[in-house]
Amino acid sequence: MAHPKYRRVMLKIGGEALAGPEGFGIDPHMATEVAAKIKAVYDHGVQVAVVPGAGNIWRGQDGAALGMERATADHMGMLATVMNALALADALRKKGVETRVQTAIAMQAIAEPYIRLRAIRHLEKGRVVIIGAGTGNPYFTTDTAAALRAMEIHAQVLVKATKVDGVYDADPLVHPDARRFEQLTYISALNLRVGVMDSTAITLCMDNDLPIIVAELASPGVLDRIVRGEPVGTLIWH
Predict the structure, then answer these.
(1) What is the largest distance, in Å, between two alpha-carbon atoms of the chain?
(2) Which pLDDT belongs to residue 223?
(3) Cβ(167)–Cβ(182) under 8 Å?
(4) What mean pLDDT do residues 150-170 have?
(5) Nearest to 161 by CA among 204, 126, 213, 118
(6) Which residue among 48, 117, 136, 230 sits deepest, i.e. has the most Cβ atoms within 10 Å of its Cβ?
(7) d(Cα 90, Cα 235) in Å, to the nearest integer?
């Protein structure tokens, strides 16, 4: 890769990316696949930070819908993201990639506390930084955490890796005739109530001029193509 367009990337992955065929738990083979995709761009000098979700283990909103206190349910989700962060870090280390796991909730025995300047320094030293526990606050999604951390570490793009190859005007898994967008403005994405990313995250990116690329993680070479600047998935921008 001669001249990547993006040299520092924030990658947001759903917890489902680490799950097996049943869609629950952590499958080491899936973690290895995700690690291989990250290593492919890491090997070209691209700095990568990752914020994992927790949908393969626990969703705070689901717990709240069943009568659990929302803050408690969200804190459980934050802990689940740390499990995913540790699994991905292990898979990356086995591929020879140096990593650091940081968390918004202090748990020094297993990870560093999230400190913005330390995260930036790790990236500059060629380490992949995996940030768990979301923002550390209930009522905020890991999408919002990814947008916030992307701004803090001066990422050049936020890549939202999903199960679909972009943003559609309807759920393509339910509506086969749904139309995919190659590009959307922030306002259009907000008006469409884009299901792949919450409105708080989109608004935060809009207010700070951070481009968002929504793409399918399973697509071959997807991260390579994105950092080269190829049109992949849906770009949400001005």
Answers:
(1) 53
(2) 97
(3) no
(4) 96
(5) 213
(6) 48
(7) 31
**d(Cα 53, Cα 78) in Å, to the nearest integer?**
8
* pLDDT tens-digit series, residues 59-105: 888 888 899 999 999 999 999 999 999 999 999 999 999 999 999 99
Domains and CATH numbers, the chain: 8-237 (3.40.1160.10)
Question: What are 187's two structure tokens?
Answer: 């306002």
Residues 27, 32: Cα–Cα separation, whole Å: 9
* Cβ within 8 Å of residue 97, ≥6 positions away: 35, 38, 39, 42, 128
Torsions phi, psi of 205, nearest 5? -65, -40
Contact 116, 87 (CB under 8 A): no
What pLDDT is stored for residue 42 in this prediction? 97
- CA 62/CA 43 separation, integer angstroms: 38
Task: Annotate 133-200 with three-state secondary structure.
Answer: CCCCCCCCCHHHHHHHHHHHCCCCEEEEEECCCCEECCCCCCCCCCCEECEEEHHHHHHCCCCCCCHH
Q: Judging by beta carbons within 10 Å of its beta carbon (0-12, 13-18, 19+), is residue 88 exposed, middle or buried?
A: buried
Give residue 147's pLDDT: 98
Measured between alpha carbons, how far is 147 from 200 in angstroms, rounded to an integer? 9
Is 96 buried (19+), middle (13-18) or exposed (0-12) by CB count in 10 A? exposed
- What three-state secondary structure class fits 103? strand
The more confident residue out of 195 and 100 is: 100
